[in-house]
Amino acid sequence: MSNVVTRFAPSPTGHLHIGGARTAIFNWLLARHFGGRFVLRIEDTDTERSKQEYTDSILASMKWLGLDWDGDLIYQSERFDIYNSYIDRLLESGHAYWCECPPDEVEKMREEARAKGLKPRYNGRCRSRDLGPGDGRVVRLKAPAEGRIVFDDLVKGTVAFDVAELDDMVLRRSDGAPTYNLAVVVDDATMGVTHVLRGDDHLSNTPKQILLYQALGFDLPRFGHVPMILGPDRKKLSKRHGAKAVIEYEQYGLLPQALVNYLVRLGWSHGDQEIFALEELVEKFGTENLNSSAAGFDPDKLEWLNGHYLRETSPEELARLVLPFVAAEGFDVDASRLAQLVPLFRERANNLVELARVMRFMLVPAAEVEYDAAAVAKALTEEGRRHVAGVREALVALGTFDREGCEKAIHDYVEGNGLKFKQVAPAVRVAVVGAMGGPGLPDMMALLGRDDVLARLDRAVAL
Asked: Which of 9, 22, 50, 336 is at a distance of 20 to 30 A from 458, taking alpha carbons?
């Protein structure tokens, strides 16, 4: 099925959010699975709300997620002549007509229909008037008077709509601009789109678009409408549920492969498997496993999944990724130094922001170590500071200042003075890192180096 063509068509009226990102991922995976084409189209016909900054943000988010597209990027705003040529074709074939009814009259027609318990719709007053173009006039589709539109949805199964419930929708506005449904159908048909996967909030547009496909003589694509992502409370997903725009997740320190993996699983499954490499997703993805019930967004699960990918990433790659976050913390550190540190700290972080922060005490000079008051009071007592001074002497005597040497120096001090490890180690740890927590003490000391460790111990003794 290398002739499979899918598309993602965002409107640049805001940043790319996770619902749109999931739609893009589904379409990208379907195209890549079959060796087909994935088209990216910017639907910017709403000139008042469309902003270049949002287009730039959407494109940056797509690239960050790894969703490459085939062929040129397409802008609907550059295709008005094409849309109008198809509208003219519909007028010539009798599938469309000019209408001069002003918006307030159309709304009055709908109110009258509602009052009679009917579907609110335009009553077709201008259908047979044979009007031509004129100021304030629009072009409407001449929808069939009766019948049913039935299609096999890839997610929902058989879906049917009664034509009587549909309006003679506007195809060209009074200002000459084409409407959304007309532009979408012309674009999808002329670009050879074979599969349209989108959120089920678009389901009501599908019968209207099918009428246009039929009127224009185009082959229908396969439609698939996936349920919207809900919050944990099963209500419409919003920021209060912890959902963010894709660009915010990047700034938050998530890894793109974690977000892709998580979003795919919100609406698609392959047995009970939770974690997928991108190559696996391309290999296994198919519409037959798209879920017909809505999935709930769980920020904690996303965080957990990101932590998994963080720990699976090589130290060198993780150092490259965390470098800008370390810089944001105010440190000028090269990636080779970070590649030494991240193996010690990635178990203690679930995102790159956290990783940069938990390494902070390893990057400051001795004079800027921040001491936790409770830890100092508990560990750096008079006796504790005496042990710190004793361990310092043992470290000074080391020939090679490495992990094994530091561990031996502490061990020899403890054994040589008839002490227990727990009497000495907490004080040395607080002296070195400023707090009780952290990775293995000898590992950290070796990475800090002799001069820095001795300076930290001196400062702690003097507290």
From this structure: 336
Q: In what order do the strands lie in the sheet with 170-172?
A: 96-99, 138-141, 170-172
**CATH code at position 253:** 1.10.1160.10
Does the annotation mark 239 as catalytic? yes
How far apart are alpha carbons 383 and 71 in whole angstroms?
71
Distance CA 326, CA 334 (A): 10
Its domain, for residue 306, covers: 239-314
Task: Specify whether 156 is located in the same domain as 246.
Answer: no
- In the predicted structure, residue 1 carries a pLDDT above the cut 70: no
- Of 41, 31, 39, nearest to 4 by C-alpha is 31
Residue 328 belongs to some domain of the structure: yes
Note whether residue 70 is domain-resident.
no
Q: What is the mean pLDDT of the chain?
A: 94
Count of domains in the chain?
4
Same domain, 136 and 191: yes
Mean pLDDT of 31-53: 94
Cite the beta strand spans of 209-367 per DSSP E: 222-226
| Dist. CA 139–CA 212, nearest whole Å | 13
pTM: 0.91
Question: Rounded mean pLDDT of 115-126?
Answer: 90
Distance from C-alpha of 388 to C-alpha of 390, rounded to nearest angstrom = 5
Measured between alpha carbons, how far apart are the two ends of the chain, in Å?
Answer: 72
Which entry of 63, 239, 301, 422 is annotated as an active-site residue? 239
Q: Is residue 59 part of a domain?
A: no
Of 233, 253, 249, 200, which Cα lies nearest the Cα of 18? 249
Percent of the chain at pLDDT above 70?
99
| Contacts (Cβ under 8 Å, ≥6 apart) of 252 | 244, 351, 353
Dihedral of the alpha carbons of 60, 61, 67, 69, in degrees to the nearest 10: -40
Within a domain: residue 372?
yes
Same domain for 214 and 89 = yes
Give me the mean pLDDT over the 69-95 stretch. Answer: 97
Q: Are residues 171 and 213 in the same domain?
A: yes
